Amino acid sequence: MAWNKDKDIMALMAGHGKSLDGSWDSGCVYGSNTEAALMLPIVKAAVRYLRSKGIKVLTDADKNNNRNMTSCVKWANNKHAKLYMSVHCDYKLAPKGVAPLYVSSAGKKMAKYVGKYVAKQMGMKWHGAFKRLDLYELNATDCPAVIFETGAIKADLKSLKKADQYGKALGKAIYKYIMK
User: What is the pLDDT of residues 134-163, one digit of tens each?
Assistant: First the structure.
């Protein structure tokens, strides 16, 4: 992929947060841990890393996950983002491991590259990349998109709570992918 640091934009969104009706959507829950609360600091750390490398990043994390998914997709499309990623974690009964979702062949390449890198860096299981045809963020974007399942909220909680380490691993993986 040819990435132009002067014009290309990466859209990196925190999963859940504000819902379509304006109420708060915590995402999946395990005990006192919520998906939205766990993903926001991971995304913020990834964004910090990417921006430190000169990558233009469009993110709802700048305002603490204040946009719903429809708004995020429209925003990314209006800004002509070259890549889109929404960061999530899987529900409490999910198996351990990083498991990004994609719909297009370009999304699959990004999902596999970033997923394998993050799993290795975080000492987590690589569960695989999975094609999903039924998810809005994968279908409505004008660019390759990935829903990045960081791990299971119960089985991978220790790793998900290492927000700075996880976010930096995610940022490095994205950077290596777009600059290769």
Answer: 999 999 999 999 999 999 999 999 999 999
pTM: 0.97
* AA letter at 136: Y
Q: Is the dihedral of CA 64, 69, 96, 176 positive or negative?
A: negative
Question: CA separation (Å) from 134 to 87, 91, 95, 139?
Answer: 17, 18, 21, 8
Structure tokens at 92: 């409490």
Query: 9-179 falls under which CATH superfamily?
Result: Zn-dependent exopeptidases (3.40.630.40)
- Residue 17 near residue 70 (C-beta atoms within 8 A): no
CA 10/CA 62 separation, integer angstroms: 14
Coil, helix or strand at residue 145: strand
Q: What is d(CA 4, CA 10) in angstroms, rounded to the nearest whole number?
A: 11
pLDDT, tens only, 52-70? 999 999 999 999 998 889 9
DSSP bridge pairs for 87: 14, 148
Residue 12's alpha-carbon distances to 47, 93, 96, 121, 123, in angstroms, are 8, 26, 23, 20, 23
Residue 122 host element (H or E):
helix 105-122
